[in-house]
Amino acid sequence: MASGPVQEHADTIAEIHKEVMDSLGAHQRGVERLTAWLGRPASLYCIIAILLGWILANSSRHAWDPAPFPLLQGLLTAAALLTSTMVLITQNRTSRHNERRAQLDLHINLLAEQRSAKLIALIEELRRDSPSIKDRHDPEAEALQKPANARDVLATLQQSLESGS
Question: Is residue 108 part of a domain?
Answer without folding.
Answer: yes
